[in-house]
Structure formats: C-alpha cells, structure tokens
Amino acid sequence: MKRILTGVALAAALLLSGCGGDDSSTPTSAGSASGVSGNLTVLAAASLTESFNQIGKDFETANPGVKVTFSYAGSSALAQQITSGAPADVFAAASPATMKTVTDAGDANGEATVFVKNQLVIAVAKGNPKGIKGLSDLTNPSLKVALCAEQVPCGAAAKKALAAANVKVTPVTLEQDVKAALSKVKLGEVDAALVYRTDAKAAAADVEGIEFPESSGAINDYPIVALKSAPNPSAAAAFVAYVQSGPALDVLVDAGFQKP
Amino acid sequence: MPPALAIPAIAGLVFLVLPLFGLLWRAPWSTLPERLAEPGILAALRLSLLTATLATAVSLVLGVPLAWVLARTEFPGRRFVRALVTVPLVLPPVVGGVALLLVFGRRGLLGGWLDSTFGVSLPFTTAGVVVAEAFVAMPFLVISVEGALRGADSRYEEAAATLGAGRWTAFRRVTLPLIAPGVAAGGVLCWARALGEFGATITFAGNFPGRTQTMPLAVYLALEQDVDAAIVLSLLLLVVSVVILAALRDKWVAA
Hints:
With 260 residues, chain A is α/β, with parallel strands linked by helices. In chain A, 38% of the residues lie in helices and 21% in strands.
C-alpha cells in the first residue's frame, strides 16, 4: 500500500513538474529545487514553531504544488514517533542527541546537518522587577527559579551552563519542556527561568531575555535530516536544502537563532 | 451467557487489558531489579501514594457533603450546580492546572492573599500536588456518592426523623452506613484517578523530585530519554495500584 502511494506521489510529482516547467520565469531562490510537488510532512522541535511556519509558507510559494504540514512537539517525542514508524519526510531536532536516536535506528536518509544553533537566556518578567543581571543572581534563595528537566534538551543545556559558571541554583520546579518553563515566568509563578533565546524572543510581549556569557558553554545545535521512509523524498530533499538557504536562515536569525 | 453480551464483553476486556500486555512484553526483565533500585523511584512512589491518599481524604471531607446537598436538598439552579461539579471531568487536566494557577498562584485571585495573610504558597509544593489531584479526582467521588444517595431509600431517614433524630444525626447514623459501599467505591475511583493524575499536577505543582514529582511525572520525563525506564516505572505504579485496589475492593466494596 505504502509503495503504491509512493508510486502515485512520484507520478504526480513527474506530471506536475512537467506542468510547472513552462513557468520558468519565476526566479528560484537558493536551495529550492524546481519541480517538487505533493504533500510534505515535517516533524520539528517545538522551539522551531514560529520560524518553520514562516519558512513553510515561503517554501510553498517558491514551489507551487507543494503542501507542507508541520507537526511540532518535543524532539524526544518526535524521535520516538519516527522510530515507531510515523510517516514523515523531514525531521528537525533541537539536539544532536535526539537526532542520534533516529540516525542510529537507521531511519534517516544520509547524515543530519546542523542548520542553526540556539543559546540560553534568563527569562524574567517584563521590566526585570527583580533586577537579575546574570546567572549568579539566581542563587538568591528568595527568588523562584524554573529550569527544564535534565531529560529534555533545554534542561541539559541549563545544567551545562550552570556547571560552566560554577553556580548552584535550587529550582522550585524542573519543567517538562522549555515552553512550560517560559509560561511559569509569564504567569508570574517564578521570577526567572533558563530558556532558549528564541523562546524568550517569541514571548517578548510578556518576558525579557537576559543574556549571560556562560551560555556560550552550552550551545544547542539543531540538526535536520530527510527520512528514509519519506513518502515524498524529492520534496524532503528540497526542503532540507531550502532550510539551509539564505532566505530561510534570515527567518531563523530573526527569530533569535544563530547561524551554525 | 448470550453471545450478544459475551462477545462485546470479551472484546471490551481485551481492549482494556491489551496495553498492559504491551508493557509486560516490552519490559526490560533482565535489568529490572537494578532499575527498580535506582534512587528517586521510591521517593516518587511514596509521594504518589501519599498525595493520592490525602487528595482522597480531602475529597471525602468535602465531596460527601456536596453529594448529599445535590441529592437530598432542593434549591434553584441545582442542575446547574451539578453540571459545575463535573467541570473538572471534561476540562483537560492541563487546563485545570492553569486554572488552579490563576486562582492559587502568586498572582492568582486568592494566591496573593493566601501568601500575604498566612504565608501559604501552593504552587511547587506537595500541598499543591494534593490540591491538583483533589480538583481532578473529587468529581468521581461526588458523582458516585450522589448516585448511591439517590439509590438509598430516603424513608429510613424519614423514620429516623420521626423518632426525633435531627438531620445531622440521621445523616451520620442512618444515611452514611446505608451508602457506605457507594462512598467506598467513589473513594477508590477518586484515589485511582488521583494516583494517575498528570496534567494538572505538572502544570500547577511543577516537577521536583521528592517534593512534587509523582510517578506519572517521573514516567513522562523518563520517556524523554529512556523508554525502558518509563516502562519499569509504569509497571511498578500499575502493580502497586492494582494490589491496593484489589485489597480495598475485597475489604469494602464487596462487603
């Protein structure tokens, strides 16, 4: 059944590429392979939500005939879905470790490439009412601090950054993902949380992100890969290339990511 | 047994039990003992049992009278009040957790006042876990006790009243013993729901080992890294709760 569907998709892709061929006047941006079409399913880390929604739209504009569908969740949950056989074309993870589960299981088509990096910042309420300037301020016992749990990438990064700074913080909670930690700041339940710069930026209406030098000791790489069982391999390859192209990188940098 | 009942009954049982076999089938039996000996597991289990029991106690103290009011008194808007009682059942637990934060959180409706007046702050505390679990689990108790009260013959209470018992005495000496099996069944249901509670707990009380990390939270986080560890934790929670429920059932419900 799956093979038949792939065949149909390929046939459709060939047909559509034939049709699209005469529309050669549109300038193609870097990385967008001409003539891809069909449905494309991208599983992406939750922290990529805002930027990938934009990149998906741009990719569809550059490749008429392609419909991109995103599924955002924690990287580890997505990795498990993939190794359990979830039908998807592309996987973009928030950490090399979660990507490794997929590549080790033989579910990736080739090597994963790092397309952006993300750093931690200290998220505090708008206006920084507690006057937090750096990591060492978080040791103040009257402050309530939220960290991510060690098992998720933002928690692992926080642990690394705190160790690099030789600062011991006693958090009130170890949240299950970065967005949960951030919402505790938004709701005013904690005074500070270590989150990614991109998450703080996306929530700029409610929170402020305070940069700290030790975050460079815990930079998080975001790898992307096309999947072996991709129902739409040509579009998958085109999307992976597009994400690493200039226009897509601009979107990602605007969101607070750094170039690799 | 008529096949029209037997076949769907068997299908239903298989459907409910099959996931359990999935856990047993994938369980890392060879490394089970050392995995169970890992630190933190016992703390999470103890915390789970403690908070679920406390949440059930809170639910009994508040829920049985609430069920009595719903079943035995007439007042305008009673149907509406009963519908309100079931709100936590339809509310996604995570939303329940957020709602609790908006009330009992530092900036919440009551939270600020509780903190400044009594120095009580519920989020991120074990008491917060109990609150979250009671919020989600109490409706189960209220509904089963209300059902038991409606099923109980109110003429016994009337007889007690004609013999001079006040409403409180009649409730205590006549109604409560009459509906004891219903209260026990509701309590068991409530306890089981509280034990498995995840969404409201992690949202309202956060996750900190030994203080607010109950078994379901530990399972969820273990799943992020190590499926086998998550399976071991799930099995442990299942075995402990099934043993306790079976023991209670024999003692109370069947009696």
